[in-house]
Structure formats: structure tokens, C-alpha cells
Write a structure and sequence with these properties.
There is one protein chain. 34% of the residues lie in helices and 17% in strands. The chain is of the alpha+beta class. It has one domain: 2-Layer Sandwich (Ribosomal Protein L30, Chain: A), CATH 3.30.1390.20. The chain has a two-stranded antiparallel sheet with strand order 1-2. Helix 1 runs antiparallel to helix 2. The termini are far apart. 10% of the residues are buried.
């Protein structure tokens, strides 16, 4: 069995100013707090849900 977990790189490209409060909380939860900051996270369903539903337009 291959237990290798795929990773996903997420980059914040716009400011959180003017966004809804829950979207800003998602950014903090992902470890993003500045424009052009990137984080590498495990590609899990919870991470994909946060990115696709809440912050895909940022």
C-alpha cells in the first residue's frame, strides 16, 4: 500500500479587506495572512472544502 499523501499549494493573491468575516477566518485557519503568501497543506477533504467553497474567489 502506498501511504503517500498528496500536498496542495495555496497562495493568497488578494487582500482579505472587504471580505466576509467567515472568509477571513478560513484564511487564518489555512495559515494565510498576507498577499502572495503560500502554504503547502495536505490535500484532504476538509482543506479542499475550505478552498473551493469559501475562498476560491479571493
Amino acid at each position: 500500500m502506498n501511504n503517500k499523501i498528496n500536498n496542495i499549494k495555496i497562495t493568497q493573491v488578494q487582500s482579505a479587506i472587504g471580505r466576509k468575516y467567515d472568509q477571513r477566518l478560513i484564511l487564518v485557519g489555512l495559515g494565510l495572512n498576507k498577499i502572495n503568501k503560500s502554504v503547502i497543506l495536505a490535500n484532504t477533504n476538509s482543506i479542499k472544502g475550505m478552498v473551493e467553497i469559501k475562498i476560491e474567489n479571493m
